[in-house]
Design goal:
The chain is an alpha/beta fold. It has two domains: 303 residues, FAD/NAD(P)-binding domain (3-Layer(bba) Sandwich), CATH 3.50.50; 222 residues, no CATH class. The strands form five sheets. Strands 1, 2, 3, 4, 5, 6, 17 and 18 form an eight-stranded mixed sheet that branches. Helix 1 packs parallel to helix 14 and helix 14 runs parallel beside helix 16. It is globular and about 70 Å long. The protein starts with a strand and ends with a helix. The structure holds ligand NA7. The site of ligand NA7 has 23 residues, from helix 5. Keywords: FAD, Flavoprotein, Monooxygenase, NADP, Oxidoreductase. This is SidA/IucD/PvdA family monooxygenase. It comes from Rubrobacter marinus. Its cofactor is FAD. It holds the Pfam family Pyr_redox_3.
Length: 544
């Protein structure tokens, strides 16, 4: 219970930095409400075996504190979940954040009070909070999607979703385990479970492209070099389309000879990482160029997987490479060469039901002791819509976003004043190295609030026109890429039955996006309506 300047929802990368910035930077009173029992957001929940970051840790990390980035030592190229969680806990302690973070508290509703220009926030524990500003730091991939399959409640074994992994872990030793899903998460967990399980059955609906991660212990000399050059690395991140510290290849895949192209793909495969996507300048914008990369990865799958039938089932044809979020892996395709692993194609023989003993497809029943759903998230909007958020005139966000999310810059929603959405739909968010986008948003929002305080403004709201124009711009940016070709991707809401098919993140690249946001701010927050302080109205509201 209480009255604050700001309520922040979520204590992951975004919520923690937002708190630091507003409390320690601007001197505001702020409270973070977090559903989990600890800080860390996605890295608190995703404790499944094999969970690790797909971006290298030296740059998938906070840049705002020189001291933090100098003193923290990463032990691996791609840190595993426990290490990232330790890092976030370290940051929570270092910046003394815990005293303003309330754990175990799920926000159930947030209602805007138009007279008082403030939000009333309610929680699952029956608490009420009031704040001038509401900041959602809920993450784009936090609302777990457990598919609605008939009979799940009758299953006699143990089941879980990777995004809500049991704190005590899951024992796979010698058991018959089923994994549903072969996205980035399935691709991480499958090789790990295979090492422990008696037998692992993978239920694959859509095959996926994957490139080796080439994880390795952190090289001390490299770590030293990074620390000596952090300024430059961080600047570079904000200047590349996806927030990684590397340049996209300058050449088109179609302007080089076949031999040169093959050699470049081989080198990129050997180096590994998401950087494979940047081998050429046009893999995401030209289908013919993309075909060369897609075919290269297909040839690798055929080379690695010994059984040609299994290899063919694992080979993707339905979407161009990287039009869904491309996974990277450690021994994913190799895992299908193990005797204790089998693959079931549930596209050709769909899952009919879950029985007390396991999964029944149109072809057979597979008996299982443990069932793991690596089935992803109700991405980008799910975490918002699972709360009852109501703006002006009591209008719900659910109603407003009925045909898909509408935001201005992915930062605000017309009709929902004084609410900011960190890495919200309509911003580059999950198309980038997310902490880079988070830091940009947090800084933009805190600058905006500082501007309001200095200028005596009490309320800020995105204009409908500005929002409409931005939604159009988000669509245009996606339309200039091949991304909308992956119809079932979560970028488009295609993974959730009944979800509107709208391309949700801004695909115009981080530098362009940052420039647009800077210009909006420089023009006195163009596209937003700012309302001056009405001290009497506010006093009146507080007396209610
Ligand atoms: P994703 O990428 O959404 O992958 C989910 C997987 O689960 C994908 O293979 C889906 O197949 C499959 N799926 C979903 N529902 C079903 C049902 N009902 N039956 C069978 N298979 C199903 O989620 P991840 O957790 O792997 O990754 C999310 C992001 O987290 C990742 O991109 C990184 O950014 C971090 P489909 O392809 O839809 O046919």
């Amino acid at each position: 219970m209480g009255e604050f300047d700001v309520i922040i929802i979520g204590a992951g990368f975004a919520g923690m930095y937002m708190l630091h910035r507003l409390r320690d930077g601007l001197g505001l009173s702020a409270r973070v409400l977090e559903a989990a029992s600890g800080v860390g957001g996605t890295w608190h929940w995703n404790r499944y075996p094999g969970a690790r970051c797909d971006s290298e840790s030296y740059y998938y990390s906070y840049s705002f504190s020189e001291e933090l980035q100098q003193e923290w030592e990463w032990t691996e190229k791609y840190a595993a979940q426990p290490e990232i969680l330790r890092y976030l806990n370290y940051a929570a302690d270092k910046f003394d954040l815990r005293r303003d973070i309330q754990l175990g508290t799920r926000v159930t509703s947030a209602i805007f009070d138009e007279d008082g220009n403030r939000w009333e926030i309610r929680t699952d524990g029956g608490e009420r909070f009031f704040a001038q500003f509401l900041i959602t730091a809920v993450g784009g991939l936090s609302a777990a999607n457990v598919p609605d399959i008939k009979g799940l409640d009758t299953f006699e074994g143990e089941w879980c979703h990777t995004g809500e992994w049991p704190q005590e872990g899951v024992d796979f030793a010698g058991k018959r385990v089923g994994v549903v899903g072969t996205g980035s998460t399935g691709i991480q967990i499958i090789p790990k479970i295979a090492e422990e399980a008696g037998h692992l059955t993978v239920f694959q609906r859509t095959p996926n492209y994957s490139v080796p991660a080439r994880n390795a212990p952190m090289d001390p000399a490299f770590q030293e070099q990074v620390k000596a050059n952090y300024d430059e690395i961080r600047q570079k991140q904000r200047k590349t389309p996806a927030g990684h510290p590397w340049d996209v290849g300058k050449k088109s895949a179609l302007e080089v000879s076949q031999d040169e192209r093959q050699a470049m793909y081989e080198a990129a495969w050997e180096r590994g990482s998401l950087r494979f996507r940047s081998t050429f300048s046009d893999l995401i914008i030209n289908k013919e160029a993309n075909d060369t990369a897609s075919e290269f990865i297909r040839s690798k799958i055929r080379e690695i997987v010994e059984d040609p039938t299994v290899a063919e089932t694992l080979t993707p044809y339905d979407h161009p490479y990287a039009t869904k979020r491309p996974p990277i892996d450690t021994d994913y395709f190799e895992t299908y060469n193990r005797d204790n692993v089998s693959l079931v194609d549930v596209k050709s023989s769909p899952i009919q039901e879950i029985t007390p003993k396991g999964i029944r497809t149109t072809d057979a029943e597979y008996e299982l002791d443990v069932l793991v759903f690596a089935t992803g998230y109700d991405a980008l909007t799910g975490a918002y819509l699972r709360m009852d958020i109501r703006g002006k005139g009591g209008r719900s966000l659910k109603e407003k976003w009925e045909a898909g999310p509408r935001t201005y810059l992915g930062l605000q929603i017309a009709g929902f004043p004084n609410m900011f959405t960190i890495v919200g739909p309509g911003s580059p968010s999950i198309l980038t190295n997310v902490p880079t986008s988070i830091e940009h948003h947090v800084e933009w929002v805190s600058d905006c609030i500082e501007y309001m305080r200095e200028g005596g403004f009490e309320r800020i709201e995105a204009n409908v026109d500005a929002e409409d124009a931005w939604v159009e711009r988000v669509n245009e940016a996606a339309g200039r890429t091949l991304l909308p070709m992956a119809q079932s991707s979560w970028f488009l809401g295609g993974n959730i039955p009944g979800k509107p098919r709208v391309f949700m993140p801004y695909a115009g690249g981080l530098p362009t996006y940052i420039q647009i946001c800077d210009e909006v701010a420089a023009k006195g927050y163009e596209g937003f309506a700012l309302t001056a302080q009405r001290s009497t109205a506010r006093d009146g509201a507080l007396k209610k």
